[in-house]
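# step 3/5: fold
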Amino acid sequence: MRTLLCLGLFFAVPIFGAPHSETTRQNDLSTATPTWIAPLNRALGLSLFSDATLWDDAPAQLARRLDLRPESITPGAETWRRYLRPPLTLLGAPAYMLALRNESGCIESFTIMFTNQGDYPAFSERATGGGGAGYVSPSVIKAFDAGLLRDFQNVRQAIAAALPNSERDPSPAQRRAAPGQLALFIAGEHELLLQARPGSLLALRIQPTERAAPPRLSDDQLRRRWKEQVTRRPNGDVILDRIPMVDQGPKGYCVPATFERLLRYAGIPADLYDLAALGGTAPGGGTNVTLMMANLERTVRQAGRRLEAIKIKPSPATLARYLDEGRPVLWSLSSTTDFNKLADTYSRERPAALTALSPWAKERRLLGSTLALDPTAAHLCLLIGYNRNTGELAFSDSWGPEFAERWLPAAAVQSASFGEFWVLNF
């Protein structure tokens, strides 16, 4: 059980690799048996590359080779992730997270997250510095910024030593998409984009060169795809059980993690760390969801979608309008210890068969109807299911696969709600 305070959020956009002229290469990085594999693997400290291209490797096998844990096994949106506690020194800098993503049956990207606001120990411990709860002293913030820039130089130098003459100038599109200091390296069919976003994060993203933006689904295509995601079970459950999982890890990133899940489900590229940066998360601060919505509006509209606030009293009847169309509902709630204890117990003991479920749920229909609201336990998750026969609702937390589907009586969901809900629309 976890009770987490939501923090900030950012929005990610595709990063496109600039074409590289063969005539300007001073060393051949695309031979059948490239010489860069061994030195790059040694520099990374990981057995990442086994041949000339990463993109035709079996994603699950590569994840096992890197000791990454399954995070999302949704067909077409698999992700493997590992949070490193304590951090592991890679490329001369502390690495806090590794992630491998597969969006279309092939590996789409591999990310190493170095120094970042969400995982920085002094921030997670909420150093008070005499300023009270949630306060981080200016000296701690200064040390974070200095460490981030120092790590940027260390990682840049380590990659340059492993891949001589491979550094290129980032394109204007890359600079717009990834604010801050950038360093770009090319190795065969791979671009290694190192980004230092001051006050926020240092990340190395390995992705295909000369990437093209995936074609945007038309409204009709997306409507059909979403409806195909609706699962109807013999016991009366109507559930959206194919939404990508994102584990926010040991930090209050419920908002960016939940939005990454929603946006990727809608075919819009997103990453929780970038989302947190876009939202302007400050050390010790929280997320203003309204402000974050405004920051996301342009990118969501560019994808042909809209984020809309809706006014509902959560129940099977009110949620059916959205869930029957395959549209999950963002839900702002008070995720207290009592709420999570109830959700854990209820979901664990809930019978699967309708004959047993109906009388069982009827006896418990008022459970949680008197839950207290606690603003310090503010949380965001997705409402993903309902059962008209039993009056139950299902929700999904961004805490890993075991929290992908949780059930409660509608009375408990209503009691824990702050009354704020949003959906993606056309």
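# step 4/5: annotate
The mean pLDDT is 85.
# step 5/5: archive (pending)
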